[in-house]
Amino acid sequence: MMPAIGLDIGSMTTKAVVVEGASVRARVMIPTGSVPRRAAGQAYREALRQAGLQGEPPAVVTGYGRLDVPFAARRVTEITCHAVGARFLFPEARTVVDVGGQDSKVIRLSTDGRVLDFVMNDRCAAGTGRFLEVMAAALGLSLEELGPASARATRELTISSLCTVFAESEVISNLAAGEAREDIVAALHRAIARRVHGLASRVGLEPEVVFTGGVALNAGVVRELERLVGRRLLVPAEPQFTGALGAALLAETGGTP
Amino acid sequence: MGRDAFRQALADACPPREGAIGYVCTYTPEELILAAGLHPVRLFPPGGPTGPADAYLQSFCCSFARGCLDAALRGRWDGLAGVVFPYTCDSLRAVSELWRCHLPTRHHLFLNLPVRVEGIAALAYAAREFERFRQWLEMVAGATVGTDALHAAVRLVGAVRERLAGSSLLGREFLEVAMGAQVMDRFTAAELLEGLAPKTPPPRPGVGVLLAGGALEDPAILDVFEEAGAGVVGDDLCVGSRYAVLGAAWGDSPPGGPVVALARAYLERVPCPTRHPPERRLQHLLARIAQRQARGVVFLLQKFCDSHAFDLPYLRSELSLRGIPSLLLEVEQGALARGQALTRLEAFLEIIGS
Prior knowledge:
The complex is a heterodimer of chains A (about 260) and B (about 350). Chain A is α/β, with parallel strands linked by helices. Chain A folds into 2 domains: about 1-90 and about 240-255, Nucleotidyltransferase, domain 5; about 90-235, ATPase, nucleotide binding domain (Nucleotidyltransferase, domain 5), CATH 3.30.420.40. Chain A contains 8 helices and 9 strands. Chain A has helices at about 35-50, 80-90, 130-140, 145-150, 165-175, 180-205, 220-230, 240-255, and strands at about 5-10, 15-20, 25-30, 60, 70-75, 95-100, 105-110, 115-120, 210. In chain A, the strands form 2 sheets. Chain A has a 5-stranded mixed sheet. Chain A has a 4-stranded mixed sheet with strand order 8-7-6-9, with helices on both faces. In chain A, helix 2 (about 80-90) crosses helix 8 (about 240-255), helix 3 (about 130-140) runs antiparallel to helix 6 (about 180-205) and helix 4 (about 145-150) crosses helix 6 (about 180-205). The two termini of chain A are about 20 Å apart. In chain A, about 55% of the residues are buried. With about 350 residues, chain B is α/β, with parallel strands linked by helices. Chain B has 2 domains: about 5-155, Rossmann fold (3-Layer(aba) Sandwich); about 200-354, 3-Layer(aba) Sandwich (Rossmann fold), CATH 3.40.50.11900. Chain B has helices at about 5-10, 30-35, 65-75, 90-100, 120-140, 145-165, 170-180, 185-195, 225-230, 240-245, 260-270, 280-290, 305-320, 340-354; strands spanning about 20-25, 40, 80-85, 105-110, 205-215, 230-235, 295-300, 325-330. Chain B has a 4-stranded parallel sheet with strand order 2-1-3-4, sandwiched between helices. Chain B has a 4-stranded parallel sheet with strand order 6-5-7-8. In chain B, helix 1 crosses helix 7, helix 5 crosses helix 11 and helix 6 (about 145-165) packs parallel to helix 8. The longest helix of chain B has 22 residues, at about 120-140. Classes of the chains: A alpha/beta (about 260), B alpha/beta (about 350). Chains A and B meet through helix 2 and strand 8 of A and helix 14 of B.
């Protein structure tokens, strides 16, 4: 089988995955920046270089930037690509929860892996990676520090607002009131988990549930979401590449989603 | 000519004619307006951000109602001789009261039509309200609404509705014509519609979907469907085909008289979600899907429209039970959030097209 490439041009990062048969030959992640098509071209070339490939194999593109990639052979939505990617990694998957930079989505799959239904967040950034990014900045932490910090929480606080702007105000008020950052971070994770769980409830959470997207790297959010769902979530080793992986798999088969 | 005239009528703020009576909801019996020698003009707000109306309406009021008040406050419909609001929903009721208090339109009427449309009591109630409307129109026009004039108006509006219902236009083109016909002079609309019908139906574009929902501001909202690769093969929209399905036709001497017959026709039409029971709407929706061979249904919901939102779980679950996929898209200020709508639509097409 010929190598194939998939690109996921997200709001914050652009990912490229090269697959050949059942194995991943290369993966690349770069910031999307303000010109998505430029990031797409850069990730495409870098992934091919890492995979040691000559020529320009056709690319399946997904993500919000998919609409503006001149060299795309085909564009497929994130919904389908995450479903294909998650199903490849976990054949028993029946629900995919994806929380990316600016949107979150829940996808329900049939036993044979077809997308049955999906739901996406509204226009605001509540319950997305951007929400966590803003909160991390308000707390003076990096995104990577959020997960470990919440594991050290000792007191249960509540962030009542799901609006990114209002929640940031609440974070600042809590800091001013002398609350520990760890407790605030845990409260934020509970808030985001509540939001995602509420979204998931609209389409139903059929096990097994796979958690994809960059936010799945945050152990605190995973823990809180597992608590609400009432079962362990399946998290890929590199969850942020799931959409690009699905796109690459679609490019490889050349088939319909 | 042809479709351009409908587009132009829709773009014009208000037809420059004497005796124009504005209305928002299709439960307005425009036959009575015509019979009084006046001109029914359906009010479509232009879409986009609002300004003056924001001082009067809560943030949870839908942008269609807000847009109506806003356009009125900005003077868009200053030329109206009168305006009539049948009871539709709480938001439009508020718009009606605000209009009465803050706008210079000389004549204003609120029609209190029944919510439950079945049964003899509903008919008697609606007929009394239609009769009150007739008397109000006589006062506005300074003329009598005679039986012959009412019969003629029923025939005229019936011709417009029939030609729209039989039109083979699709998607944005159909919506432009349907909305334009509700604004322009009805004689002109009937004539133009007669000449507009293509002899052969146009090819079905993309994956066929049916649109369902309530009021929309701008037919351009359908462009995103084309961009996504969907073909809008029909609709069940209050601004579109639902206007066209009214069986108001009777013989020379209908029981109870023509006003009662007209009230009966309005109560027997496909109910919109502001009316009960919803089962008839489901049956109509299923018939439209079958007739238009749609692969799925896209519900266009005005954000904060409680009436439509209330019926959605019922309609979607009934469609799902029959294996008919559906998608919900929210409309605000006459538009869809393009990027998100495109993703949702493309994903929906990937599901129903696979």
